[in-house]
Amino acid sequence: MNMMNRTSDLAAGENATAYARRQKIYPKLAHGTFRRIKWAVMAVTLGIYYVLPWLRWDRGPNLPDQAFLLDFANQRLFFGPIEIWAQELYYITGILILSALGLFLVTAVAGRMWCGYACPQTVWTDLMIVVERFWQGDRNARLRLDYGPWTFEKIWKKTGTHITWLLIAVATGGAFVFYFRDAPTLAHELVNGDAPMVAYAFLGIFTGTTYLLGGIAREQVCIYMCPWPRIQSAMYDVDSLLISYRDYRGEPRGPHKKGQSWEGRGDCIDCTACVAVCPMGIDIRDGSQMECIQCALCIDACDEIMQRVGRPQGLIAYDTFRNLDAPVHEARVPVRWFRPRTLLYTALILIVGGVMLTAWMNRAVLEVNVLHDRNPVFVQLSDGSLRNGYTVKILNKQHAARSFRIAISGLEGAGMTIVGMSGPEPTIDVVTDDLRALKVLVTVSAAKRGTLAGQATPFRFAVIDARDGSVIYHDATFRGPGDE
Amino acid sequence: MTGKEIDSVTGVETTGHVWDGDLKELNKPLPRWWLYVLYATIVWAIGYWIVYPAWPTLNDTYTKGVFDYSQRAEVGKEIAAAKEAQAKYFAEIAATPIGDIEKNQELLPFVMAGGAAVFGDKCGPCHGKGGGGAVGYPNLNDDDWLWGGTPEAIQHTIEVGIRSGHGEARDMAMPRFGLDGMLKRDEITDAAQFVLSLSGHGTDTAAAGRGAKIFTDNCAACHGDAGKGNQELGAPNLTDGIWLYGGKLADVEKTIETGRGGVMPYWSGRLDPVTLKMLAAYVHSLGGGK
């Protein structure tokens, strides 16, 4: 590089900016199949979110009757008939793994379906745009308003928009806190001003984030904050159905007058309807790009135009790279649904789902845990007998108080005492939904020491339900000095 | 080269920087709000300095912040709240005779947890975290007690210690038979063989026979004629298989020669009465208590 070049580079560099103003986007309302699907998805997802905490579920006395409740105070999660305790949180891990695999599978099959239809950022942004359109009109009216002077009309239209956004935001944050505490009670408390501080804090946080992310930031969240756009290109392949501009059909593009021949030119009349409706402000005709959330609104917009100019629909459509790149598009191969990637994701989903289901079916309402004392591992008593200490934990997950007896089996001539209880096999009461830890001492008399199998003798604790006699066994070992 | 240069492939303006003669960087500026967020975090940080304690000052103190916030004070408040929540347990423990604590199923988990915590801090260094003991430090899980294993006896031992300098300390010294020349070398061996034979561990019947008389003359006063020990005096039972200083011949000879005699600190006045009670109940619950 010579001196000349360097100077001119610096001159050009001074013109370049490190930070750019945001280009505000004014999405136009699209009409068509995908817009209708998106309206339906918006209604269903928002409906579920706002209504869910108000559904009731009768679980009997002393338990919350809210169908969906994340009861952090008592370390329980309630999902209708399903109840997850703190020590069963791995079920949540399983659900997260399933969600991730589901996202991978959907992306491999049909691109960013999640982003385009179901992501909360998309749904709430869509809702906020509806509000904006209600107060300020569609794209052209909004553009006129924004570029025009500050008039009384502009002020009240803008004020109305922001007030409605804030109301939606408050309702969103409100719905969120209701998942964590009995909804009717909390609603009462919130109004009276004696709800817990943390409820107000989260209400504030979620009001702020909904207003800021859904109302103001919008596509900036998807482009600059969300990691998924960076990952997506690794998640789909040449057989994934992506929103695509069929340039083989559309090019060369150009304006078209009514009655003109379509010979020798493409179907794209360069009307930019696809750009006007795009909530990300991109031009899909530039090809697959990071910013595209694949919401399919450009398909609706283009189809409408194609119908008007009398050309077949589907200039923009769900299509695969394989077909776009094919030398003869009409003889396109059917979509390959079954390929290693989709089969692998499906198999993984089935395996994880199967494991979780099996685990759930075998979920016990009684859990027994035995911890062997480590210091000392065993104790020799003055009469030569050996004793081991254990902590036996009984967890009663049934919604009723239960009584148990503890016995040991497989250890010849062993005696057992429970600290704080008298008698060889006392009754142990465990109240509803609670854990009871007992210190249990097992002694093998000097005379029976010979029957021990060296340093570690396996035996079993039996926890017997006093009412129905059902037994849960737990393996343990009795430790001793071994051969002296 | 004047004005903007547009990259022909992407249609994006370049920065004008050129590397290796022909590589050019596209100008993809960050959104400006990103910059404003950075400024906002800086403003936030400055606010933080003002509101909360932040800067050390020259006279060995620090700026207190306008909210007068102190983490130490917050912890103090939380400790006070926790103590208040525990107050009813403490009152109940104070009112319950130590022998009855284990039977109180409501109190027991609290006592066990509290006792275990104090035990780990104060007793664990010598007796082991689980009270398993070591040579010279009694195992608190077994049923062999020098000064008695009832809850009351254990509590008293914890309160006054052993040879601790406390006015009422458990104190009894075994004579130094060898060091003070009271027994000769072979007499010590004979006595040791007899002592071992009491628990069936002797190896030399002839020596043990000779040792019987030495034992009666010198040891029986404290350990009893049958060697069963005496908890009033802290004299160990020699007929069981449990040895504080080891059960080999050399260990027992050494014990007779030097008299041994361990020390345990006293805890009355250093732990409050309720804590002492919890500790004693916990030690008793380890399983060896009478």
UniProtKB/TrEMBL annotation, chain A:
Instruction: Tell me the InterPro entries matching this sequence.
Output: 4Fe4S_Fe-S-bd, 4Fe4S_Fe_S_CS, Cyt_c_oxidase_cbb3_FixG, Electron_Trans/Redox, FixG_C, Ig-like_fold
| SUPFAM superfamilies tied to this protein | 4Fe-4S ferredoxins
Under the cellular component aspect of Gene Ontology, which terms does the record hold? Answer: plasma membrane
Q: Which residues cross the membrane?
A: 37-55, 89-110, 163-180, 200-217, 342-361
Please list the GO terms describing molecular function.
4 iron, 4 sulfur cluster binding; metal ion binding
Looking up PROSITE patterns in the UniProt record yields:
4FE4S_FER_1, 4FE4S_FER_2
Claim: Electron transport is one of the keywords in the record? yes
Provide the 4Fe-4S ferredoxin-type domain boundaries: 258-287
Per the record, the coiled-coil ranges are none
**Keywords for this protein:** 4Fe-4S, Electron transport, Iron, Iron-sulfur, Membrane, Metal-binding, Transmembrane, Transmembrane helix, Transport
Protein's UniProt keywords contain 4Fe-4S: yes
| UniProt xrefs under PANTHER family | FERREDOXIN-TYPE PROTEIN NAPH (PTHR30176:SF3)
Name under which the protein is recorded: Cytochrome c oxidase accessory protein CcoG
Species whose genome carries this gene: Hyphomicrobium album
Q: Which gene encodes it?
A: ccoG
From TrEMBL, chain B:
Binding positions for heme c 1 per the UniProt entry: 123, 126-127, 264
Provide the protein's localization: Cell inner membrane
Keyword Membrane carried by entry: yes
Q: Report any one BP term from Gene Ontology.
A: proton transmembrane transport
Recorded GO terms, molecular function?
electron transfer activity; heme binding; iron ion binding; oxidoreductase activity
Tell me the keywords, alphabetical order: Cell inner membrane, Cell membrane, Electron transport, Heme, Hydrogen ion transport, Ion transport, Iron, Membrane, Metal-binding, Oxidoreductase, Repeat, Respiratory chain, Transmembrane, Transmembrane helix, Transport
An annotated GO cellular component of this protein is:
plasma membrane
Q: Does the keyword Cytoplasm apply?
A: no
**Pathway, per Swiss-Prot/TrEMBL?**
Energy metabolism; oxidative phosphorylation
Please state every residue range assigned to the domain named Cytochrome c. Answer: 110-199, 206-287
**Cofactor(s) the protein needs:** heme c
The note on cofactor binding and number reads: Binds 2 heme C groups per subunit.
What are the transmembrane regions?
33-55
* Residues that hold heme c 2 according to the record: 174, 219, 222-223
List, alphabetically, the SUPFAM superfamilies matched.
Cytochrome c
Q: How does it assemble?
A: Component of the cbb3-type cytochrome c oxidase at least composed of FixN, FixO, FixQ and FixP.
The protein's matches in NCBIfam families, at most eight in alphabetical order, are given as: ccoP (TIGR00782)
Sum up the protein's function in the record's words.
C-type cytochrome. Part of the cbb3-type cytochrome c oxidase complex. FixP subunit is required for transferring electrons from donor cytochrome c via its heme groups to FixO subunit. From there, electrons are shuttled to the catalytic binuclear center of FixN subunit where oxygen reduction takes place. The complex also functions as a proton pump.
| Family classification | Belongs to the CcoP / FixP family.
* Name of the protein described by the UniProt record: Cbb3-type cytochrome c oxidase subunit
From what organism does this protein derive?
Hyphomicrobium album
